[in-house]
Design goal:
Blueprint lengths: L1 H22 L3 H7 L1 H5 L3 H8 L9 H8 L4 E7 L2 E14 L9 H4 L14 E13 L2 E7 L3
Antiparallel strand pairs: 1-2, 2-3, 3-4
């Protein structure tokens, strides 16, 4: 009985992992699937895009090939012109170790701790990459280093 449960659980876990890993898009997969878009870029931009990097003045197409589809798009106005900002969201997981004093056991402090009964580490979203376009070209960008 336990062996069958373990086999089913591990098969489900393996299938889920393979699905997640194969659905991730990299610059190389986007370039190979859209080689016509890649060929329209200059040699300098092709080198940057293949390394997953961008620069000021590069086109939206090049940013999409390098970084992929954004999680959010924000339309704005800067200096009288229309801007578009792409945000790529990353997630950080931090282990949570609650602090308990000896008297907390008797007075129930864990009831006041919102994460005391959490089964999973808390995941915190943050903007890992942000790029702003003006007139169809990159006007500014920033990214978090790991």
């Amino acid at each position: 009985m336990r062996r069958r449960f373990f086999l089913r659980t591990s098969t489900l876990g393996l299938a889920t992992s393979l699905f997640i890993l194969t659905s991730c898009s990299t610059p190389q997969t986007r370039i190979s699937e859209h080689s016509d878009l890649y060929q329209t870029l200059s040699q300098k931009d092709q080198t940057l895009v293949s390394q997953g990097q961008i620069r000021i003045g590069i086109s939206r197409t090049a940013v999409w090939l390098a970084w992929g589809s954004p999680d959010r798009k924000i339309i704005g106005n800067m200096g009288g012109g229309r801007t578009e900002t792409w945000i790529y969201t990353y997630y950080a997981s931090y282990p949570y170790y609650p602090y308990y004093a000896p008297w907390d056991i008797y007075f129930g402090a864990p009831l006041y701790d919102p994460f005391a009964y959490s089964w999973f580490p808390q995941s915190i979203p943050y903007p890992g990459k942000v790029v702003t376009f003006a007139h169809g070209r990159v006007a500014s960008f920033r990214y978090a280093t790991r």
